[in-house]
Amino acid sequence: MPAIRRTAAAAAAAVTLFATATACGPGDDNAAAPGRSAAADRQGGEAGADAGGPDQPNGTPTGPDDTKKWQKGGWKDWDQWARKASEFANPVIKDLWNPSRMAEARNTPDVTTQSTGDAGGSDPEPRPVQARQVARPYHQHMAPIGKIMFDSPQGPMVCSGTVVEDPAHPGKSNLVWTAGHCVHAGRSGGWMRNIVFVPSYNDQGLPMSEVGRAPAQEVSPYGVWWANWITTSGEWIDMGSTKSGNAGSAYDFAVLHVKPERGGGKSLQETVGAALPVWFGAPSADRVSGLQAFGYPAAPPYDGARMMNCPARPGRLTMSQGTPAMYRIGCTMTGGTSGGGWFTNYGGRTYLVSNSSIGSLNHTWLAGPHLGAEAKRVFTGISRKFA
């Protein structure tokens, strides 16, 4: 199992996973296509608000009594589902996500599809690859990976995410990469609530039956990090569906800017000790010899307690005519893996090139978006905001 270990150098996340055959590298001019995304320029292409700001929606919890109501679903009493950028709010509620509540959050935004891409440009369905457990403790092997938790209309839910480098803050990133459907319901809804990131969740891989009673240091070794700004693509907001894969799946990515629940001066990257660079415009599936997908699958037969991964060679999946071909790999990971990073190696460095977005109904494969110009615009927007 390749390792991304915590080191004294905060940006030290370069390890060799496997060879990648490609004609151009991440720094080449051809690495990302030029152009603008009209959808990303529209309202909703970027969203966020400083946590705890003055203009919170009615009913936002402000004290212990409100928090108790919130935990029982009181957040649904907000006047409306926050959809637009100006309506996003994610106030910090200390101790809301304690080990017990984290263990109870097993619902997953399990976006599955029967479609194998009838728009042309898809490769045959891959054979399933059995997911395998990541070596423990996680902070010594895959420190940038963690679990994302949030409240939805269906109750507490879980996804996966990855700490990524921020060019505006070298070695001091507070950015987390995940899937768009882990933060926004797409065309049918709005922003999720109480969105947090827990790096190296359940560090020792305890059985879920023990997680709820375990000390917080074991469940969240680097603490709980609250999103105080989020960006996702306008395409996801306009077209995305949390029911099944569609054209919006090709743009199903998001970036969180986070801050520690307990405060402190260190960034997320400094705290965790590692972050991964994002490779925008990476080679298409037919030019990549291998990928590894990581995450915390929580839908049966998994329970969300352990970090898993699938190494596989990708193929192409085109969901709709005119949308970029997605990467697709054979993998048995289930819901909860959504948003987890897909990594490849180039020149001795490990890069994030995609994230889990959709999967088959029988959990034999996963697909993730190709991170092109639209993804770069989303990422650049949030990086510059906090520059």
Question: How would you describe the shape?
Answer: globular
SSE pattern: HEHHEEHEEEEHHEHEHEEEEEEEEH
Helix residue percentage: 10-25%
**How large is the count of helical segments?**
9
The major sheet is characterized as:
6 strands, antiparallel, barrel
How many angstroms separate the termini?
A: 35 Å
Q: Residue-averaged pLDDT, rounded?
A: 82
Q: What's the total count of β strands?
A: 17
Measured on Cα atoms, how large is the radius of gyration? 19 Å
Structural class, by secondary structure, is alpha+beta
The largest sheet has its strands arranged as: 4-5-6-9-8-7
- Beta percentage is 15-25%
Give the low-pLDDT segments.
5-24, 28-44, 47-59
Describe the fold and architecture.
The protein is α+β, with helices and mostly antiparallel strands. Helix content is 14%, strand content 23%. It is built from 9 helices and 17 strands. It has helices at residues 38-41, 64-71, 99-104, 138-141, 208-211, 216-219, 234-239, 268-272, 373-385, and strands at 46-47, 112-113, 132-133, 145-152, 155-164, 175-178, 193-199, 225-232, 254-260, 291-295, 308-312, 315-317, 326-330, 341-346, 349-355, 358-360, 365-368. The chain is globular. The two termini are 35 Å apart.
